[in-house]
Each structure stands twice: as structure tokens, then as C-alpha cells.
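[Discussion] Sanity-checking designs against the backbone

I'm trying to build intuition for which residues belong where. Below is a C-alpha cell string of 332 positions. I'd appreciate it if someone posts a full sequence so I can compare it with mine line by line.
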């Protein structure tokens, strides 16, 4: 039997969240909003696609999160010659002391709480597909046996948006499985000075665990217990439907530049991410403002633009911003 969502649980959620965010910020400079998006997706139980040019600290961010949350961490460098078994593991022949042989499963690096799929678009589609089951079912099937992954489980994948030679763009079905797509931009002058101060001196920043497995599990359960009023759910649904160009009430910009709109997973993401925002604001239920706050990272990777949009440089964020402006909130 689960606990009711009490004021004490909401207060503990916010306290643990802020403590974890502060600990990660000790090493990661100038990315407060990025850290917030990653933690929101993590506590909502989702996976994250990090996009940015090399050197922005994507790998460091994931490793720091694992240190601060006291979670097991594995990093997989995706390359064209990487095979699915290199990620999931495989059955190997084992010789016991009596001379008999049997197959034994050797777990791959996917068996960790936090898994970094570095430059995921450099591997072939066959290898990329090796993480699909783990993302959806939190398990890996090898042969006829299904092996559960450790909980909590979160896959964070990175990709470089500018170096596309020799890459294999992720299929839409796989991109849709990511809870958030987080765009990392280059830091400003003050942030670069902060990076210099923290990384070029002999004062090494030590990250200590500030949260444990039980607290993380409790926080993820609390997110699911936040209420969503009918009019807020309808607002989330209307935002998603407003990205479909074949509907009569779709805004002109989406109708002109979008080929395929947001999937049902996008609506689920809006609601779950909004629940995290509600808890951080000490509320038992989500609001339409919470939905708008998380709309860009939740939906930007679920919009498939047409040729005209790509030719004119129209970004998914521009389309979503127009949708947010034109779709009114339902009356409660």
C-alpha cells in the first residue's frame, strides 16, 4: 500500500531535489537550467537525449549526477564497429571445476543505474536498437532469457549536432522514447571563467553522495501521485494535437512547417514533467503553467519538420513557441 502525498513528503522531495542540484552544480558551471531539466526527467523516470557540440560537459554532467546520487555508472562509446552484445552482454561458455561446460550470461555495461550512450548516432541502427528494450521495459533479453535492469535505470545519450559525416541519425521511434531532449549551448564569459577556476587549479572539486536509492525510489513514486485536473490534461492534449498539420484547428505555422506531430508519449511526458514542477512548488496538482514550462524539452524531438522548414531554418522550438502562444488554456 502506497503512502498518501502528504506535506512532509512534498517538503522532503523538494529538499532532496535541491540538495542534489546544488551538489551537481559544484562541478558543472553555468548550466542551472540544464541540470534542472535533467533532474526533472530523472525523477519522472525518463531517459534523456543531450545534444551539443563537443567540450560542453555532457559526459561530466552524467558522471557527476551518478556520484552525487550514489548510483552505478557506465559509459559506452558508440562507434560504427560496436555490436549489440557489447552493450547488452552475451552468453559465454563456462568451465566448472568438474570439467563440464555450460553457458553463463555475462552482463554488459547497460546493467547500471545511469548509462551514458556517448555519441549514440555513431553506431549502426542494429546497435542503436539494442537499447530500445532497456529504455521501454527496463530489461534485456538475450536468447530466451529476460534479465531485469537495476532500478532506478536511466539512459542518457549524447549526440553532436554539427558533425554528421559517418553518423546514423536515430530513427523517430527511438527518439520518441527519450523523455527530454536537452539542448546544450556554449557558456558565456563568466561561466568560462568559472570553468577555468575549477579545472586548472590544484583545488579538485569533490562530489559526495547526498541521496540514496531508497530516497530516489520514494521521489519517483511521489511524482506519480501528484494530481492532474481534467482541464489540465485536456490542455496538454490540445498542445500535442496542435502540432498535427492535418487538423482543422492547427495553427498556421505548424500546418506549414510540420510533417508529423507529437505522439501520445509526448502528452505523457508533459504530464509527468509537470508533476515534478508541481512538487517543487509545494503543490498537490499540476497547472497549465507547469505544462508550458516543460513543453520545449518534452516535445522538440517529437516534431518532424518538412523540407520547407529545414530549408528556411525553422526550428522545432519556434513551432512549439507559436503553438504555446496560440492554444488557449481550457476553462477549469
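Best answer:
Here's mine. Compare freely.
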Amino acid at each position: 500500500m502506497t503512502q498518501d502525498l502528504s506535506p512532509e513528503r512534498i517538503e522532503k522531495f523538494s529538499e532532496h531535489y535541491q540538495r542534489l542540484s546544488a551538489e551537481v552544480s559544484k562541478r558543472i558551471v553555468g548550466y542551472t537550467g540544464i541540470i534542472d531539466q535533467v533532474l526533472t526527467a530523472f525523477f519522472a523516470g525518463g531517459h534523456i537525449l543531450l545534444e551539443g557540440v563537443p567540450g560542453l560537459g555532457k559526459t561530466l554532467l552524467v558522471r557527476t549526477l551518478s556520484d552525487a546520487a550514489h548510483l552505478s555508472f557506465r559509459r559506452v562509446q558508440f562507434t560504427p564497429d560496436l555490436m549489440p552484445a557489447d552493450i547488452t552482454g552475451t552468453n559465454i561458455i563456462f568451465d566448472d571445476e568438474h570439467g563440464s561446460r555450460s553457458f553463463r550470461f555475462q552482463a554488459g555495461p547497460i546493467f547500471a543505474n545511469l548509462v551514458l550512450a556517448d555519441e549514440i548516432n555513431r553506431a549502426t541502427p542494429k546497435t542503436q536498437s539494442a537499447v530500445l528494450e532497456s529504455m521501454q521495459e527496463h530489461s534485456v533479453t538475450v536468447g530466451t532469457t529476460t534479465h531485469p535492469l537495476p532500478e532506478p535505470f536511466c539512459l542518457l545519450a549524447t549526440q553532436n549536432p554539427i558533425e554528421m559525416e559517418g553518423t546514423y541519425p536515430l530513427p523517430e521511434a527511438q527518439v520518441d522514447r527519450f523523455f527530454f531532449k536537452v539542448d546544450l549551448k556554449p557558456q558565456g564569459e563568466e561561466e568560462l571563467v568559472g570553468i577555468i577556476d575549477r579545472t586548472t587549479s590544484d583545488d579538485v572539486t569533490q562530489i559526495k553522495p547526498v541521496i540514496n536509492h531508497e530516497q530516489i525510489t520514494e521521489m519517483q513514486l511521489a511524482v506519480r501521485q501528484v494530481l492532474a485536473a481534467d482541464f489540465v490534461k485536456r490542455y496538454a492534449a490540445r498542445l500535442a494535437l496542435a502540432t498535427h498539420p492535418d487538423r482543422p484547428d492547427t495553427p498556421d505555422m505548424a500546418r506549414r512547417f510540420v510533417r508529423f506531430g507529437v505522439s501520445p508519449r509526448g502528452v505523457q511526458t508533459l504530464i509527468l514533467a509537470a508533476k515534478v514542477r508541481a512538487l517543487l512548488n509545494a503543490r498537490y496538482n499540476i497547472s497549465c503553467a507547469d505544462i508550458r514550462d516543460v513543453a520545449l524539452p518534452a516535445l522538440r524531438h517529437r516534431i518532424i519538420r518538412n523540407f520547407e522548414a529545414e530549408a528556411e531554418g525553422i526550428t522545432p522550438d519556434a513551432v512549439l513557441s507559436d503553438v504555446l502562444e496560440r492554444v488557449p488554456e481550457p476553462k477549469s
